[in-house]
């Protein structure tokens, strides 16, 4: 109903980005640039998007520097480790996949997001 006024998106597509309470602070629906864009504040959204991208680049540069330093000192460097998933090889396809390793729903129940990085 009224699809022509909603870019012909389905109801599901229209609601996928709806905010939800009690989610992890890393939930993509909380992206400040996205929220600004959805409010029609395009200029502010673009500035915020650039800030977030630079923040991501800085984290990547820091991790790369840490990896180089570890290599120079002959130490192992694990790099980024996802909080809620682990990489495994699929026994059927042989492809690398991400498998839920637990913890998210327990953290959500307790509202304990201390394991989440500050990405925004």
UniProtKB/TrEMBL annotation:
SUPFAM superfamilies: Oxysterol-binding protein-like
GO molecular function: cholesterol binding
Top-level taxon of the source organism: Eukaryota
Pfam families: Oxysterol_BP (PF01237)
GO cellular component, one term: perinuclear endoplasmic reticulum
Family annotation (InterPro entries): OSBP_sf, Oxysterol-bd
Coiled coil: none
This protein's name: OSBP1 protein
UniProt source species: Indicator maculatus
Name of the gene encoding the protein in the UniProt record: Osbp_0
């Amino acid at each position: 109903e009224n699809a022509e006024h909603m870019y012909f998106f389905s109801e599901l597509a229209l609601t996928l980005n709806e905010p939800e309470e009690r989610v992890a602070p890393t939930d993509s629906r909380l992206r400040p640039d996205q929220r600004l864009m959805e409010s029609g504040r395009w200029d502010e959204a673009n500035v915020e998007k650039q800030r977030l991208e630079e923040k991501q680049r800085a984290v990547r540069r820091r991790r790369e520097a840490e990896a180089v330093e570890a290599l120079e000192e002959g130490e192992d460097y694990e790099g980024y480790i996802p909080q809620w998933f682990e990489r495994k090889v699929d026994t059927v396809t042989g492809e690398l996949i991400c498998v839920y390793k637990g913890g998210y729903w327990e953290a959500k129940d307790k509202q304990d997001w201390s394991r989440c990085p500050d990405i925004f």
